[in-house]
Amino acid sequence: MVRSDYLLETRNLRKSYGGVNAIANVDFKLEFGELRCLIGPNGAGKSTFFKMISGQIPPSAGTVYFDSNNITRSSRHQVSRMGIGIKNQVPDVFDNISVRENIWLAARFRHHEAKGAKIADNVLEQLSLTRLANSLVGELAHGQRQWVEFGMVMALQPQLVLLDEPAAGMTAEETNRTAQLILELNKTSAIVVVEHDMQFIRQIAKKVTVFHQGKILIEDTMQNVQANEMVRDVYLGKSGHA
Amino acid sequence: MFIQKFFETPPSQMPHRVWWTLVGLAVAIGLLIPRFTEIDVHLDLSIVFIFAILALSMGFLWGFVGMLSFGQTVFFGLGGYTYAVWSLNYNETTFGMILAIFIPVLAAAALGYFMIYGRISSIYFTVTTLVVTIVLEKAVRATSDERFKIGDVMLRGQNGISTVPDLQVPWNHHETLFLTGVYYLAFILMVLSYIGLRLLLTTHFGRVLVSIRENEHRAEMLGYDTRRYRLMAFVISGGLAGLAGGLYGVWGNFVAPEMMNLSSAASLVMYVIVGGKSTLIGPLVGTGIVQQATNWLGTAGLGQVNLILGGVMIIFVMVFPRGVLPSLGTAVTYLLQSRRHLSVQSDVVGKNAQREA
Q: For A157, which residue in chain B has the nearest alpha carbon?
């Protein structure tokens, strides 16, 4: 066990594909309870980084610590058991079973029958999905399926939530609702959000990490990041305001 | 309405009252049949029940966990041979039947461990199980030599063992089950397996299995060690196939390598496909349909039974892609809805007519 004062910490994390570094020696630190946004242009390595800290792909080198535990080589279910909830970009749900069953399966993992059902009901309520509880997830609209997955992550009651483009493909209204949910969730969990919808980031961002060519370009508040010349050049384009 | 209720309760929930009523009715009919029929009917139906247990073991694994295993015939054969060898050696059958479940369970645990923990993909899982059943069949075929004995029992290669003892009543070794007795036993065990698996699906374990079928990646990200669950399911279905194998030995007093050959493995898939794998009742009904069709084609003197059967299967798969029973369920739901729709329409028409009048 290595001492780490952070909830999540990566040291020299690297991932290379055929000699090209998708992520090059990244040192990343996340405080307990923090809400952090990862942004960067396409190909900056955000998703690769996300998949490594969530245990979905193994890094080429370096280590990931979660709550002082080395989770670099942990399997997906171990990562989840330690208290990390993950939501990928594409809705990753159980299509042919009901909404309630989806959430219940998450809630039931840590809790007994009755408690699991209660948590599932609460989550359904919070997401305003109670009305749809008995529908099959596969029959729902894209945004609703995203929320079902969001609900599964909430039902896990994780210490850290990792969200990969949670607002992808959502309407403006759904995006607003998702932003609220994230802020709500942040009261109990630390959160890392990967996103490139700037409008959305502005709604939730506290501290922002900008990736560029597999490295961390800058880490600062949203305001400072937006004002930063370098960031404008690589990400927002020279014309400025996105 | 009845059939709708039967099909529409999701497997995760306790079956509806209607389900219990229908199952009870089927049990009553099944138990009464021997009183009104001749012995040849008992004999024919017993083997349907035995194959139905085997088909159930495959349908459960395929339809609810998403694992297509051709290896059910491996455990079927192992169960049959285990029963034969034990009961011939010790002249005792109760423990022989228990072993007929237990040995296949061990075999499934070992085989499943390497496949599932080795994380081979589903298509390789299917191919591997198919290869294992063929290899085992060839291996048993190659035991014609007198040297191949287990205890005092010669395996006799492709001739099989044709002196498999009848099943003794556990509390009285001098009394054995014969024909009609085997009918009752096979029927009751089939019903119990069916109800048991149906109830298993309502447990936390069963519900996780279904979630693995839906999206294994997500189930893992919820914290479930899916390999353990899949191995457990494989072992359960292996034990069930072993039970069917033991019963097969009792039924025909005969076990042979054919229990494990390609044709057995393939016809099992047919039972499940024809009945439909999305319900547990599907494989049972499918077994009945295909067995009856095979018998009928055999006696109709058309020759080329397999060819005709194959053609019929292809048509079946194209017309009822989800199997006979789910299609029937959909058809009934559709009919009910269109009738309701019609009555609503006629209501509206009636009201309009009144208004106009």
A: B222
Q: Report the complex ipTM.
A: 0.89
**C-alpha to C-alpha distance for B15 and A104, rounded to whole angstroms:** 19
For CA atoms B112, B237, A77, A37, give the dihedral sign.
positive
Please count the structural domains in chain A. Answer: 1
What tens-digit pLDDT sequence spans chain A (242 residues)? 667 789 999 999 999 998 888 999 999 999 999 999 999 888 888 889 999 998 888 999 999 999 999 999 898 899 999 999 999 888 899 999 999 999 999 999 989 989 999 999 999 999 999 999 999 999 999 889 999 999 999 999 999 999 999 988 888 898 999 999 999 999 999 999 998 788 888 889 889 999 998 999 999 998 898 888 888 887 655 544 44
Q: Does A114 touch chain B (CB under 8 A)?
A: no
DSSP assignments along B49-69, one per residue: HHHHHHHHHHHHHHHHS----
Residue B215 with chain A: CB contacts under 8 Å: 92-95
Which of B217, B222, B225 is the closest to A105 by Cβ? Answer: B222
Chain B interface test: which of A87, A94, A108, A162 (most B C-beta within 10 Å): A94
Whichever domain contains A42, its CATH number is: 3.40.50.300
Dig out the tokens for B276 from the structure.
């439909």
- For residue B153, how many other CB atoms are within 10 A of its CB? 18
Provide, as residue numbers in chain B, all residues whose Cβ is less than 8 Å from the Cβ of A85: 221
Place of tokens 């049972």: B284
Domain residue ranges in chain B: 2-340
Residue A63 lies in a domain: yes
Asked if B223 and A77 come within 8 Å (Cβ–Cβ), the reply is yes
The answer to whether B13 faces chain A, any CB pair under 8 Å, is no
Q: Which domain holds residue A31?
A: 1-82+203-242
